[in-house]
Amino acid sequence: MKKLFAWAAFVLLGMAVSTVCAQETKAERKAKRDAERARLRAEEQVQDQISYEEALEALKSNQFVLEADQVVFRTGQTAFVNTGTNFVLVNGNRGTVQVAFNTMYPGPNGIGGVTVDGTVSGIELKTDKEGNVDYNFTIVGIGISAQIFLTLYKDGNSATVDISPNFNNNNMTLSGTVVPLSQSNIFKGRAW
C-alpha cells in the first residue's frame, strides 16, 4: 500500500512539474513571438522612413516616377493596372503621363492606352504638419494640358496623383508608389 501511495505521489509530482514547465514554455514562446513581431514592426518602420526620404528627395530634384497600381475614374470605377505601364514621370522640366489597360485594342500608344509628353511648369512642393507632401504642377504638350496634384503620404512612398485636364472633365486618380527615376521600372509607349 505504501508503495502504491508513494508511486501515486511520484506520478502527481511529475505531472505538476511538467505542467509548470509547459506553462513556462508557453509564456516563453509568447514572449519570443511578441519580441519577433516588435522587431519586424521596427524594421518595417525604418524601411518605410527610408522609402519616404528617397521619394521626397526625388520629388525635390524633379526626377521621379509615380508607378501606379490602381486607377480611379471620375465615375468612381476602379481598375487595378500594371505598374510598369501606368505612371506619371517627371524628369526636370519634362513630364509624361501614361495609362495602359489590358485590352485587345492597342490604343494610340501601342500598349492599350495613351501616352502624352509635355513640359512641366509651376511646380509647388508643400509639406503639411503630419508629414504628407503635396507636389503640384502643370503639364502642357501636344496631347495634354492638365493640372497634376500628387500627394506623398508620410508612412512610406505610397502616393496618389489626381490628373485634372484643362479642356475637359475627364479627371483621373492614380494610386501607387513614388520612386526615383533611376530606380523606376517602366515601359513607355508611343507618345503624342
Please, could you describe this protein's structure?
It is a single chain. With 192 residues, the protein is α+β, with helices and mostly antiparallel strands. The chain has a single domain, classed as Lipocalin. Helices cover 31% and strands 39% of the residues. Strands 1-3-4-5-6-7-8-9 form an eight-stranded antiparallel barrel. The mean pLDDT is 87.
Low-confidence stretches: none
Domain tally: 1
Return the CATH class. Answer: Mainly Beta
Shape: elongated
- Count of distinct strands: 9
Which architecture per CATH? Beta Barrel
Strand content: 35-45%
Report how far the terminal alpha carbons are from each other.
100 Å
Helix proportion range: 25-40%
The secondary-structure element order is: HEEEEEEEEE
**Mean pLDDT figure:** 87
Structural category: alpha+beta
CATH topology: Lipocalin
Number of helices: 1
Largest sheet: 8 strands, antiparallel, barrel
- Biggest sheet, spatial arrangement of strands: 1-3-4-5-6-7-8-9
Return Rg in Å: 28 Å
Protein traits:
about 190 residues; alpha+beta
Outline of this structure?
By secondary structure, the protein is of the alpha+beta class.
Which SSEs are present, and which pair or pack?
Blueprint: H1 2-60, E1 63-73, E2 78-80, E3 87-91, E4 94-100, E5 113-127, E6 133-140, E7 145-152, E8 158-165, E9 172-180
Antiparallel strand pairs: 1-2, 1-3, 1-9, 3-4, 4-5, 5-6, 6-7, 7-8, 8-9
